[in-house]
Amino acid sequence: MPEPSRTKVSSVTTQRPLELILARNLLSALSTPAFLVDEGGVLVFYNEAAGALLGKRYEELGTVGPEEWGSIFGPFDDEGEALPYDELPLVIAVRNGHPAHADFEIRSTDGVLHTVEVSAFPILTAHGSQGAIAVFWPSGSQNGAAH
Fold this sequence. Notes:
By secondary structure, the chain is α+β, with helices and mostly antiparallel strands. It has helices spanning 18-29, 48-54, 58-61, 66-73, 89-96, and strands at 34-38, 43-46, 100-107, 113-125, 128-138. The chain has a 5-stranded antiparallel sheet, sandwiched between helices. A hairpin with a 4-residue loop joins strand 1 and strand 2. It starts with 17 loop residues before the first helix and ends in a 9-residue tail after the last strand.
């Protein structure tokens, strides 16, 4: 008796580099707001603290490209103008392979602007850049320390 034909089912998922998976696990444990982007600038994760500041949990937004996250959250300069993509700390970290820092405003989903400081650093491997992590916090939140 001939065997019934079998259809091979394969799932179509995007496999992320191990370094991005480990970085996501790290960010999940932090209480400091943080973003994770891949080598193309695609937002692949942000933690719960970032979601609280931005007004939307990552699970509600999902993975989005740089144009989309830029139009949703900014960032903006002191005059409210969108900052050029190439000047963002995350972009500098991914493209140039070194840390970057900046102060700017971001907009939460309820329209409120928040002035933040952002530090981004690349995720580098033997195969090159795999993305970057950016941590951010409200500007001036550390200035109240006693002298």
